[in-house]
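User: I'm curious whether this sequence folds into something compact or stays loose and floppy. Could you predict its structure so I can see for myself?
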Amino acid sequence: MRNILLLIGFLIIPILASAKYYKSTVIYRSGETSEVLVKFPLSTTGKNLIIKKSEKDHSERIDRNKILFIKLQLNDASNTYYFITGQIGYFRKNEEFQRLGLAKRQSFSLLKKAYDEILVSEAGIRYAIKGRKGKEKVVIIFEQGMYGLYLSKPNDSILVSINTPGFKTRTMLKRAQKYLFPNCSSLENDLKNLRFKNDKDLYELLEKNLNCN
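Assistant: Here's the prediction. I'll summarize afterward.
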């Protein structure tokens, strides 16, 4: 175990050492928007977002609870990434929302796919920017066993985990039905017949049931 922790440390240290500010657009829950420099790697566990208004300015801290999402463009705006915010959790058997661990405050999650009514985002402990062959891209840093996806509604403040350790994806989706698909009576039957081999299977389920809303 100690060797594993050391290995993770050695892998993360180079990324932390290359911390850098990137031009980004921050959209607040109040509706305000600001063009700033955001510090990367972006941590999902910190209380604040660290920014600069310009390269010459000192860094500032923004309460992440005020942020709706961050828009980041790389490679001369040819690649766009969105980081959405919300409290991470899952729906219990009684259909009440249960926050997970550090989720008393907003966490960041990398948007993977967007529908009109549902957002699919990817979990991580940090989001870093890595350069290769003259181009930069966002890379996700995980903890062992942490990988998973979140489902959320646009402009809402919760991220529903569907890969919570100890529970099957089917169970997580079934418990979240009233929140995610309130008008879909066929969802339970669809879940019985679906095998979650990859993300494509999830997208097919979402596309079919979103038509109910």
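Summary: The mean pLDDT is 84. The first helix runs from residue 2 to 17.
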